[in-house]
Amino acid sequence: MDRHCGDSRPTDGERAAVDALLGPPESSWEGAGRSDADLRWARGGRAARDRRDLLLPGLHAINDRIGWISEGALDYLCRRLTVPPAEAYGVATFYAMFSVGPRPATVLHVCTDLAGAAAGADQLCAGTTERLGSDVQVERSPCLGLCERAPAALAVRAGDPVRTAVAAPATVDDAVRAAGAPGSAPEEPPAAMAVPQAGQEDLVLLRRVGVADPASLHDYRAHGGYAALRRAFALGPAGVIREVTDSGLVGRGGAAFPTGRKWQATASQPGRPHYLVCSADESEPGTFKDRVIMEGDPYALVEAMTVAAYAIGARRGFLYIRGEYPRAIHRIQHAVDQARVRGLLGDDILGHGYAFDIEIRRGAGAYICGEETALFNSVEGYRGEPRSKPPFPVEKGLFGRPTVENNVETLVNVLPVLTMGAPAYAAIGTERSTGPKLYCVSGSVARPGVYELPFGATLGELLRLAGVRDGLRAVLLGGAAGGFVRPDELDIPLTFEGTREAGTTLGSGVVMAFDDSVPLLRLLLRIAEFFREESCGQCVPCRVGTVRQEEALRRIAERTGAAAANDIALLREAGRAMRDASICGLGQTAWNAVESAIDRLEAYA
Ligand code: SF4
To answer: Does residue 590's CB lie within 6 angstroms of at least one atom of ligand 1?
Structure first.
């Protein structure tokens, strides 16, 4: 593809897709026919730059309508947004869900990540490829966030509108049917099916899932919805931050940073505007709790974002959702629309004179966009590459403005903090890890799904609840960026401090059980491959280290003992370099799981 605005023209369909997002072009500068108006004005400078953040939605619009992004379509989008085509090409090729080469209108994404691999994803890939022929492109996909129903496949058929269908757990027949007619595929099971505890009275975060209709604002309010926002208005922004600080709530994405401190640091910044960003881009293999919340209790997230924005003085919030989550996007969009209609978003929320609204942005398949500054770049229309810190987002975040970024689970915790009060919330869990915690349990268990337990329960208690099967070989805690523990370590308390003391991590709450039928060395290779593929490549330790790690693991795939010693030494050296010198968490954690498999599980002894 030539990377400048050339003579390529968009097709009518491509032009229509872009115009449906941006409106018709206003001048020939933007791709319309020449008119007298062109002699008088052109969109440029700030007016043009201000629309750069529409680049990712524009790429989605073309990809959704056509199935891939041609040179003519990219050029047209670039003219409309005044973005250099070379930069737009760099953005389009950054994301796994886009293609800049021709491909069939229907793509079947088959999850080949950890839970999928353990449940037969390779056979699913091979079977569907053989049956579907050239009308459907079968793509091996990183985790689709459907681990409780692995193996899983997502069919996407481009058109107007784009159609999607999920098959999970998928047989070859199911996946072929979904790809053949995504518009008429059977409904997915309700979100509550992913919550084995659904309906239990002692639940805090999941209490409405399976109980209240996720499409009904009335039902949400009848089950306690919007009580937290009313209390927030009664407390005032400073009072809300005090309450959140006193509750001891820390971020649930893995870094465990105190939420109240983050909010206070942003609220006190003199620069305006302030932004709230919610990351619903959970891409850690094995994680699916945010999807279940958005599908099962979407208004809770809308309310929680409104509370957070009020506390930090933001008028605009962005909700960045994985592109692989079509039902969650649909449910949240519906909830946002209804909240607007009922005065719960907009210029005068609940008559308190406070204005706030939420924009939904769709990711396009990039694990690294779970890193907060990569996510900001992605929203702004740049490649989703992490920024060096400092400056920290509380000072310079989205669009260079003070920004709070929290994930879905962190935000929905704010609701019970306000409705119960900080002391009651802080009484749940342990002194240093307060509140309830969600876990995504999958693998060799009878009842996979999202579980809610107070911090402090042990790993063994959680696994017994999920019905762990006999022959347990290892448990992966925290996903690919986490670490393995042995079956004799199930008394590890699930708290930030307890897992740290045990030399492992809670991460984002992934708990994947593997029995002795699962080929452990193949899993390690898949983890290494995952990090090599997902590294954004901008810093050397990670870009090179993830490649070296995968190469070494391939070399020693079937070797143990002395025969593996040199490669294990190389793995340690590369791992140390990645951990010490990478810019962001991806490179810093890319060696964790492999290291734990070598040291704790004696994978190559
Ligand atoms: S550590 Fe890896 S993912 Fe993170 S910025 Fe560096 S190259 Fe990119």
So the answer is: no
